Amino acid sequence: MRETVPMRFTEHELTQAIHGVAKSVLAARKDVRRKKVDVEQLWSTMDKFERYQLIEGLGSQLIPVLIALPDIEVEAGTRATFTPAQVTEAVESVVGEAGGKLRRKATVAVQVALTTEALSHLPVRRDPDGLLSASSEEGDDLDIVVPDSLEGLDGLS
User: Fold this and answer.
1) Residue partners of 117: CB distance under 8 A and separation at least 6
2) For residue 73, what is the enclosing H or E element?
3) Are 88 and 66 in contact (CB under 8 A)?
4) Are 66 and 120 within 8 A, CB to CB?
5) Secondary structure of residue 152 in the 3-state scheme
6) Using CA atoms, how far apart are residues 37 and 35, in angstroms rounded to an integer?
7) How far is CA 57 from CA 52, 61, 84, 118, in A?
8) Is-contact 131 142, C-beta < 8 A?
């Protein structure tokens, strides 16, 4: 049996999601598509400030939505999955009532697409304690001893 933990994104997961969306946005640019440029190559040739501008713009839109997603249980070794309704509800809660009816609808549609793309780039959830291994999943007991104090350990004063 695998452990599940409530869904709270780690910094690494958020970074992977936003970098994945940034590369997808780059790949969708007209000049990149026409020249058939490799996105990874383009990403590596961009200077740090260009990457920052892209990531900051996407992050300011995506992070509030990703944080607004409901807490779910995610098994170690799987990715977080959300229904389209959950994603849309999170986006609508962040977008609010700003703008006209048509503008809001377009904003929600774009945000849902970006959020869905971000979720597709989430890495597989790791065991939070790092205790699961192939042998422990087969039912073998792990012999882990947690000391009561660090006294007497080499290298620690």
Assistant:
1) 20, 21, 24
2) strand 73-75
3) no
4) no
5) coil
6) 5
7) 8, 7, 23, 14
8) yes
Single-letter residue type at 29: R
Mean pLDDT of 104-110: 90
DSSP label at residue 33:
H
Mean pLDDT value of segment 31-50: 86
Q: Which helix (H) or strand (E) holds 63?
A: helix 48-68
Count of CB atoms situated within 10 Å of the CB of 118 = 28
Secondary element (H or E) of residue 74 = strand 73-75
Q: What is the pLDDT of residue 88?
A: 92
pLDDT at 41: 86
More confident residue, 83 or 148: 83
Helices (H) and strands (E) in the chain, counts: 7, 2
Residue 5: DSSP 8-state: E
**Does the pLDDT at position 120 exceed 70?**
yes
Three-state DSSP state, 4: strand
Residue 91 half-sphere exposure toward CB, CA atoms < 13 A: 23
Residue with tokens 């997961």, as numbered in its chain = 13
Residue 135 has pLDDT above 50, yes or no: no
